[in-house]
Hints:
Strand order of the largest sheet: 2-1-3-4-5
Number of strands: 5
Radius of gyration: 18 Å
Distance between the termini: 27 Å
Order of helices and strands: HHHHHEHEHHEHHEHEHH
CATH class of the largest domain: Alpha Beta
CATH architecture of the largest domain: 3-Layer(aba) Sandwich
Amino acid sequence: MNLNELTDVLATLFNDDTKIGALLDRSGIPRGRVRALGSAAPVNFWREVCEELAAGLVENGINQLVAKARETYPGNPKLREWTNPRRNASPKVFLSYARADVAEVDLLYDALVVVLGSADDVYQDTRSTPLGSDWHDVIMQSLTSANMVVCWVTPAFLGSSYVPYEVGVAVAQGATVVPVVADSAALGNAPAWLTRRQGIPLHPPVDYAALARKIVATIPAAAGARP
Length: 227
């Protein structure tokens, strides 16, 4: 299910001020940071809310919103699909990072989903691996089909023993590797395979929506280079 489908579902289930307010409160979304429903169509309201969440309004905001919506409608198949999606295993962007940095990478994932329009186009291990699957097989399948691997570069990333393996597989398959330098101090110990690549330096506060747009803008060229 993509983000447009999610906003359609939310608009159908939560379509008046009372229901919307209750869901926002239970999801930890400050009402003062989003406009009131007023005369707006519910689908437009929820689209704006999801865009704000993807930009980092609330940590892991979209998943938190869906989890609370499921508490009200536990049998809704669309909400269940967002929580445990059926993956096409052919993402456009693969996120490579250290587990210590998962909170920041969650925000980038949410922003990329908004820009690309579908969660199927972004792979993040904690969000994209179906329950019960062999996680190593899923990672390898996603790596070998992704057009771009985005590396979230921090000291923890460089200290990971698994990251060089991921990047090596991606390079062998012809994917574009883009370092996103979240901590410039890490570059002092970065290997040549990373420092030779043009990357994106970050400066706080991070605008995740703008970062996602910058990443996605380069995907067509990467896609054309794949066999």
